[in-house]
Specification:
nine-stranded antiparallel β-sheet, 3 helices, 9 strands, globular
Amino acid sequence: MTRRLVLLAAIAVFAFPAAALDMPARKPGLWELKMAFEGNKIPPRVMQQCIDAATDKMMNADFGGAAQENCSKRDVQNTGGVITIDSVCKFGSATTTSHAVVTGRFDSGYTVDVTSTRAGGAPVPGMPATGSTHMKLEAKWLGACAGDQKPGDMMMGNGMKMNVLELQKMRGAPKP
C-alpha cells in the first residue's frame, strides 16, 4: 500500500502541474510539495523535490508527453497568470475527467487545485467509490538543495528518497 501511495503521489505531483507542455519552468532548487486529497482515505502528503532546469524540463516532457498520449482532450488556458487545464484521459479501462487551476509563481510558490472524476476500471484503494476526488497541491520554493541532494531527488515525508532520473534509467528512457 505504501508503494501505491508513493506512486499516486508522484503521478499527482508530475501529472497535474506538468499536464501542459507549456507550463512555466520552476526555479531551480529545493521545493516543498504539500498534497491533500479531500473526501478519501489518503492522508495528506508532504515531500521535497530538488530540481535544476534539466530535471524540471524532463519532468514536463516525460509526464506531459504521457498525458498527451493518453488524453483525448487537453485544453490549457492562461488568463492573467491563472492557468486552467481541462482534460479527459484514459488509463487502461478507466477514464478520468479533470479540471485543474494553477495559481501563483513558479519562482516562489504555486497552488494546483484539481477536481477529477474517474469512471470504469478497478476500484482504487483509499479512493471514494464515486470516483470523484479533489486534490490540492501547494508548492513552495525553499532555497538551494541540501549538500546531499542532487537534481531529481524526491524526499518523501516517510524518510524515503528516490531520484526521478534513476527511475528514468530503470525504464530505459534517455536522460535529459
